Amino acid sequence: FALSVLIALIQLGLLQIAFNKLGLSSSSAYLLLFSSLLGSVFNLPLFTMRTEPQAPPINIPRPLFPGLPLWRFTNRTTVALNVGGCLIPIGFSLYLFQNSEISLMEVIQGIIFVSLISYLFSRPIRGLGIGMPILIAPLSAALVAVLLNPEASPPLAYISGTMGVLIGADLLRLKDIRKMGAPFAAIGGAGTFDGIFITGIVAVLLA
């Protein structure tokens, strides 16, 4: 679904419009785009936690090596950081903050608002991960950015949207991992990568 949306955005030229609103050149924009997509297949393990058993148990393909044996759920979940869905958005958000006319208080308020919305609308899906309606976060991010700083709403919308989804739908949902019965959970990965990537682009367009 995310790939289909991405192709549609490229075909319509909306992706370039979004990057232009963020002040990025074409080369920088597509470097960010392909770095995010490539980085989405890399997960950096952080820790392992004991989780509730699931019936029936499921197997999930390893993120980096599809040809190797599958992840087998053994009542333990490995929590990791996704490069494309977590680390790159954080780094780009810091870049936008340093190079935009937005204050720290505006960023904090925007992130808190979208984080709360993301937490309220996200739900743990047993055996898979965290799910959330894909347009809720970008609409919320665009709205709060326009209200807080209309003149610099595009970068504020991107920061609020991506960081809000990471915090509200991932970090604040870590407590739910024990109940999902999944062998692997990536912060900013799997289904939430789609949400984070699309949130950033759509929020900028709407702002």
Largest sheet: 3 strands, mixed
The general outline is: globular
| Overall mean confidence score, pLDDT | 77
Q: Figure out the total of helices.
A: 9
Strand proportion, as a percent range, falls in 5-15%
Cα-based radius of gyration, to the nearest Å: 17 Å
- Spatial order of the strands in the main sheet? 1-4-7
Count of individual beta strands: 7
- The SSE order reads HHHEEEEHHEEHHHEH
Q: Low-confidence runs (pLDDT<50, min 5 residues)?
A: 55-70
Helix content: 55-70%
Q: Roughly how many Å apart are the termini? A: 23 Å
Q: Pairing-aware structural class of the strands and helices?
A: alpha+beta
How would you describe this protein?
The chain is α+β, with helices and mostly antiparallel strands and 207 residues long. The chain has nine helices and seven strands. α2 crosses α9, α6 packs across α7 and α7 runs antiparallel to α9.
Brief sketch in words of this structure:
This protein is an alpha+beta fold.
List the helices and strands and how they pair.
Blueprint: H1 2-12, H2 14-21, H3 26-39, E1 43-50, E2 59-60, E3 71-72, E4 76-82, H4 83-98, H5 104-121, E5 123-125, E6 129-131, H6 136-148, H7 153-170, H8 177-180, E7 184-187, H9 191-206
Parallel strand pairs: 4-7
Antiparallel strand pairs: 1-4, 2-3, 5-6
